[in-house]
Design goal:
Transmembrane segments: 27-48, 69-88, 108-127
Mean pLDDT: 90
Largest sheet: none
Distance between the termini: 40 Å
Number of domains: 1
Number of strands: 0
Keywords: Membrane, Transmembrane, Transmembrane helix
Protein name: DUF2798 domain-containing protein
Radius of gyration: 18 Å
Organism: Paenibacillus uliginis N3/975
Length: 143
């Protein structure tokens, strides 16, 4: 997800060019670490507390996955709209706060659609294959 979102957002900020794309590739390793830490330390705990408030006993797996995705993208896009600007510009400034109402909805939309249309289907496919492989190993051991 980070490989697509960062270049798109930087392209929208600075214009789409080879130089902007190459600059975004230089930032991605730092953003990847920030995203992983943000998921574990910020989004995970917040979403973990919010999910029970919105999910009912009769809600299905797909509804839970969709809500989890929307909540995670919301929390991360709020946080990363600020931190990402600082990393991208290589300075801490008030710029992300001054432009927050402009940049956050755009960043949220980009992240949500990439998550829903690209990242989640790939992750579900990979998990399906992994579980199928584990089931076939278990089946061959039990036979």
């Amino acid at each position: 997800m980070n490989l697509t979102i960062s270049p798109i957002i930087m392209g929208l900020e600075r214009g789409f060019s080879k130089e902007v794309y190459l600059d975004s590739l230089k930032i991605i390793p730092f953003m990847w670490i920030i995203v992983i830490l943000s998921v574990r330390l910020i989004a995970g705990p917040i979403v973990g507390k919010l999910m029970p408030k919105f999910v009912g006993q009769t809600d299905g797996f797909n509804a839970r996955v969709l809500l989890n995705t929307v909540l995670n993208v919301t929390v991360l896009s709020l946080w990363l709209s600020i931190i990402g600007t600082w990393v991208g510009t290589k300075q801490i400034s008030l710029e992300p706060f001054e432009n927050f109402l402009h940049i956050w909805p755009r960043n949220f939309g980009i992240a949500l659609w990439i998550e829903l249309l690209i990242a989640q289907p790939i992750a579900r496919f990979a998990m399906k294959k992994l579980h199928a492989r584990q089931a076939s190993k278990a089946e061959s051991v039990n036979s």
